[in-house]
Specification:
The chain is mainly α. It contains 26 helices and no strands. α18 packs antiparallel against α19. This is LisH domain-containing protein ARMC9. It comes from Paramecium sonneborni.
Length: 482
């Protein structure tokens, strides 16, 4: 029986030559030249092979003598169930990825045919602007085509040239003066397409170039007339185009400072107004929330949020999501805004003075944690509650049974059943948050070693973070086209 186990083990070990190659690579890397020379000489004289054969024969009598390196290179390693599932998912994703690419190629084929058809109609149409429009469509189609042929990998290694940036800005203002809405939309979307196409590591520099070229003519005039007039035009396509580009610019702290030049919050106020006019979950609403979430890193914008009743609006949005479906992006970013707003000294002082309103906010947030809401939203709600769990709100905490309700939540949440590993991780994260925020002195409840939620980054730290990271994420939604 013992001999059979030994034979089974040696049928599973890799070839000795393979192990020898790993050893030689290690010796070269570590500059053990003399040892490497001796090792190679011994291999050539086949002394090692005969010794290994002898060792294998001896090992049939005792598994204890098998070198551990053979254990490391066993070829019959059994994959875990999770690894098998991940491989299956990867194959499925690859298949879907290829299907999307194929669909993209078919769409471009149709688009090219349509362009050719328009060219054939150009002479009969006698439209002076048709030639320029067709050329612009060709340029845009070419940019999207590059994304497809590169299989989704950004091929842009350079920023938009100074000339191209200047041409876009000139066209934008000319179309504005001519009241050509379609022309303005085309230029704004063209700038955004360039932003989406460029390599991620260059996106921050692209934002800086948009600011340096003063694309909205804010710094040159020290006014916001141009961008405000664009935002005031009641055209959904134009609002989608302008808010999506503002979202790109607001992706850095410097971009937020550009949009609030000299402390003027008119753009923020206009974005809030547009946000509230949109259908819940719409694409334009998502871009508005993205802008406001990014801008909320600056404490100076928070009073504008508070006085424009963003706290009430966000709470109402989350309340509506309990009984009706609202896009998760809206809920996630809205609740993140709420956390950023409540965190600031300005808002906390405001709530202290508005004690009844503070009670209403606390009561509603405590109700939310018992409802079926997305985990990311739940985390933001818990963070909001942690900011309100201060002595200054002791009266409201007592009236709302704050401590008891948080304890009840933790007790109930700790015993919920999770369907998969991801849900289990989410559950653990939520419980770690509660332990960290509501029981900071009881380290036994906190399994997290890295959470530092009691200290949000200051603007200086955000600048430092941006400089270190360099990569930005620009929002892009599948349903934008419709």
């Amino acid at each position: 029986m013992k001999s059979a186990n030994s034979n089974q083990l040696f049928t599973s070990v890799p070839d000795s030559n393979e192990i020898n190659e790993y050893i030689k690579e290690y010796l070269r890397y570590s500059a053990y030249s003399n040892t490497l020379e001796c090792f190679e000489a011994e291999i050539k004289s086949k002394q090692v092979s005969s010794k290994m054969l002898n060792k294998q024969q001896q090992s049939k009598q005792s598994n204890d003598e098998i070198p551990r390196i053979f254990q490391l290179f066993k070829t019959d390693n059994v994959k875990t169930k999770r690894e098998i599932n991940l491989e299956k998912e990867q194959k499925l994703f690859n298949k879907k990825y290829q299907q999307i690419l194929q669909a993209g190629r078919q769409i471009f084929s149709v688009s090219i045919n349509l362009l050719q058809l328009l060219h054939s109609l150009k002479e009969t149409a006698k439209n002076e602007n048709l030639s320029e429009t067709l050329e612009n469509y060709k340029i845009q189609l070419g940019k999207y085509h590059k994304v497809i042929i590169n299989e989704g990998k950004p091929e842009g290694t350079e920023l938009i040239t100074e000339q191209v940036m200047h041409e876009h800005k000139t066209k934008l203002f000319k179309n504005y003066q001519d009241k050509n809405i379609d022309g303005m939309i085309e230029v704004l979307l063209s700038l955004r397409v360039n932003a989406l196409q460029i390599a991620p590591e260059l996106r921050k520099n692209l934002v800086y170039e948009l600011i340096r070229n003063d694309v909205f003519n804010i710094e040159a005039t020290e006014k916001f007339d141009f961008v405000v007039h664009l935002l005031d035009i009641n055209n959904q396509s134009l609002r989608h185009a302008i808010t999506s580009l503002i979202s790109v610019i607001s992706s850095t702290l410097r971009g937020v400072e550009y949009l609030t030049f000299n402390g003027n919050m008119i753009i923020i106020e206009k974005i809030i107004k547009i946000l509230k006019e949109q259908e819940n979950g719409s694409v334009t609403q998502r871009f508005c929330l993205a802008i406001l979430q990014k801008a909320s890193i600056k404490d100076t914008v928070i009073p504008t949020y508070v006085h424009n009743e963003m706290i009430q609006w966000i709470i109402s949005l989350i309340q509506k999501s309990i009984n009706s479906k609202i896009h998760i992006f809206c809920l996630d970013f809205a609740s993140a805004i709420l956390a950023n707003v409540i965190h600031t000294p300005y808002t906390l002082q405001y709530l202290e003075k508005q004690s009844r309103f503070a009670h209403q906010v606390m009561e509603q947030l405590l109700k939310f944690i018992k409802d079926q809401i997305q985990v990311s939203v739940l985390m933001h709600i818990l963070i909001c509650l942690s900011y309100l769990s201060k002595e200054n709100f002791g009266k409201q905490m007592e009236e709302c049974r704050f401590v008891e309700r948080i304890s009840e939540f933790v007790e109930q949440y700790s015993v919920i059943n999770t369907e998969n590993e991801a849900a289990e991780i989410d559950k653990k994260t939520v419980l770690d948050l509660c332990a960290h925020m509501f029981h900071p002195k009881d380290s036994s409840l906190d399994n997290s070693e890295t959470l530092e939620l009691n200290e949000l980054k200051t603007e200086d730290r955000i600048r430092e973070y941006e400089n270190e990271q360099g990569e930005l994420i620009f929002e892009c939604f599948q349903d934008e086209v419709s």
